[in-house]
Amino acid sequence: MPIRNPVGEAEAAEQCLREETTRKVNEAKNRIQDAINSGVDSLNRQDVAKVSEHFKEHIPPEITKKGKEYALKLEEVKSKIQELQDALDINMIKKEILYRAEEFCEACLKEKLGFLSSISLKSIPRVKLDFNGQEENLDARIKVFFIGAPFQS
Length: 153
Prior knowledge:
Layout: H1 6-37, H2 45-57, H3 64-88, H4 90-112, E1 121-131, E2 136-146
Antiparallel strand pairs: 1-2
C-alpha cells in the first residue's frame, strides 16, 4: 500500500483550485474587455456575477480574510458596473428626466395655487408626464380640500 502525503495532496488541490479560479476569472475578464473594446452597449451581468460567485465559493481557508476583501471589492465593482449601465441606459435617463420634470411642474402648480390657503382651501397637485418617442402626454390633477369647519347653511 503506497504512503499518502495528505499535506502534499492538500497543497496540490489548493494549487489546482487557484489555477482553475484564475483561469475562469481571466476568461470572464477577457469577455468583459472584448465587449468593451467592441463598443457593446452593455456588459453581460452574468459574467460579472459568475466571476464574483465562483470566487467567493472557492476561497481556500488560508486566504479567507484576503479572499473576503477581494469578494467585497468584486461586489463594489459589480454595483459600479450596474450604476454605469443605468447611467447609459436611455430608458433610465428618460425616466429620470420625466420624474424631475414632474417634480418641477408640481412645485410650480403648488406655488401658483398658494393663494388658496387664504380662502381656507388646500391643493395637492399631481403631474404625470410620458414620452413615447413621438408625442408627449401630460396628466395634471389638482385635488382641492376645504380646511377648517364644515360649511354651515
